[in-house]
Amino acid sequence: MPVPAVTKKALAESMKRLMETKAFSKISVGDICEQCGMSRKSFYYHFKDKYELVNWIFYTDLIAFFEQNGDIDGHTFFNTICGYLYANRTFYSNAFNVEGQNSFTEFFQETLESFAYESFKNRISDTGFRDFFCAFLTAAVRESIIKWLKDSAPMPPEMFADLLEQAFRYIGIDTAKP
User: Fold this and answer.
1) Can you give the chain as a three-state secondary structure string?
2) In angstroms, rounded to a whole number, what is the distance separating the alpha carbons of residues 82 and 76?
3) Which of 15, 86, 116, 128 could be a cystine partner for 157, CB 3.0 to 4.6 Å?
4) Is the pLDDT of residue 66 over 50?
5) What share of the chain has pLDDT > 90, as a percent?
6) Predicted structure pTM score
7) Residue 56 and residue 38: Cα distance in Å, rounded?
């Protein structure tokens, strides 16, 4: 039996390849397994469903980077996330088409909120307002990113990240602080 990390990566690569040409809704667990030559049992040993697989891909490809690098400033955050999403544009445009419980859109929102909460925990003492503020800002960022990725000719990721930073500075948030 393959080593778990190797199995998970093979399933992830299979899902990435399939999502380059098929809508998420048209991809079955059987398709994923067939693409990489694994059994459904292997899939379900590692993931409860294909939604969890997509979220795991994002987590291992990008979020682990942020967690390993500790506090980072907004410039690094925006440039890294926009560069990554742009480099994997077809996959994530497809992933953002899925909405509802366990969707990538929901996972992405939760991830952004977690980073925002960490960034603002020492800046906003009222936890109720901080929760609202983080949800509000991250929903705006999420929707802006989705619109940008789905544009037929999106601007380069560095330009888009710069616009996000400018928007934050405009409302008085210093993105240079971790």
Assistant:
1) CCCHHHHHHHHHHHHHHHHHHCCHHHCCHHHHHHHHCCCHHHHHHHCCCHHHHHHHHHHHHHHHHHHHCCCCCHHHHHHHHHHHHHHCHHHHHHHHCCCCCCCHHHHHHHHHHHHHHHHHCCCCCCHHHHHHHHHHHHHHHHHHHHHHHHCCCCCCHHHHHHHHHHHHHHCCCCCCCC
2) 10
3) 86
4) yes
5) 65
6) 0.85
7) 18
**What is the rounded distance in angstroms from the CA atom of residue 178 to the CA atom of residue 164?**
16
In the chain, the domains with their CATH numbers are 4-46 (1.10.10), 57-170 (no CATH)
pLDDT digits (tens, 9 = 90+) for 91-139: 999 999 988 778 999 999 998 998 888 888 888 888 899 899 999 999 9
d(C-alpha 148, C-alpha 92), whole Å? 11
Least Cα distance to 61 among 107, 127, 22 occurs for 107
> Would you state the pLDDT for residue 2?
47
160 pLDDT exceeds 90? yes
Count of other CB atoms within 10 angstroms of residue 79:
18
Residue 63 and residue 111 in contact, taking contact as beta carbons nearer than 8 Å: yes
